[in-house]
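>> received
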Amino acid sequence: MKIANKSEKDLYLFFIIAFAWSWLLWLPEVLWGIRLYLAPFGPTIAAFILTYINEGLDGVGRLFKRGIDFSFEKIWLIPIFLLMPTIIGLSLLLAILSGETAPSIHVLYQPWIIIPAFFYILFLGGPVAEEFGWRGYALDRLQKRYNALISSIILGIIWGLWHLPLFSMKGQEIYQNVPILGFILGTILLSILITWIYNNTGRSILAVILFHTMGNLSHFIFPTMATKLGGLYSIILNMIVVIIIIIIWGPRRMMRKKGYHLQSRHN
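>> returned
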């Protein structure tokens, strides 16, 4: 009971630190348009702080290693790199086929910008700043108490709420063009997809960092949110994929390998 209470307390502390760090550092951008690039790092900072307090430098080393370990089954590189571009690209295509004017797709004229955009998004666009925390720390603890689906939904709601200050920032069109409830529904669905990737790659933080990067990069390549129906089609397609995953892999662990335990690697 004491261990469970300690884990639960650490989870609450994680969310408090993650929100406090990010929201306080986002405040100058909300009020005065001054961007502090360390603001999105709240979840990762919180994860490393609490890991150091509870497990020392050895624990910090293990957490960091999961962010660079490429030893998961390479078949998972297919959904990691192709699933989100397919969903977002198809959403844009459906919006255009529904009669909307096609937005300008800049990468058609400057394809080389995809590479620097990938690395900018990777390090400063959310994935590295968030995934050591959301998945590497919080998801592990949630899954000790709930099944994979419920854990994903809880984390997806919290993840969506964490983004709320961005809806008040200038120049954040992707947030200003989406209803808040619609956005949170999107983070819930994406959270389920990330849990599926995470659990099937042996709790690899690197895998979900790459998947998160491709999700954000897909919106850069395909300006789906510049259309009226693109966001709706994206939600529908994400929901279809999530339903298929739950039917095939199951809601408990979202894994098909019998006897494969979530804690089998990277302990």
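>> Residues 2-249 form one domain.
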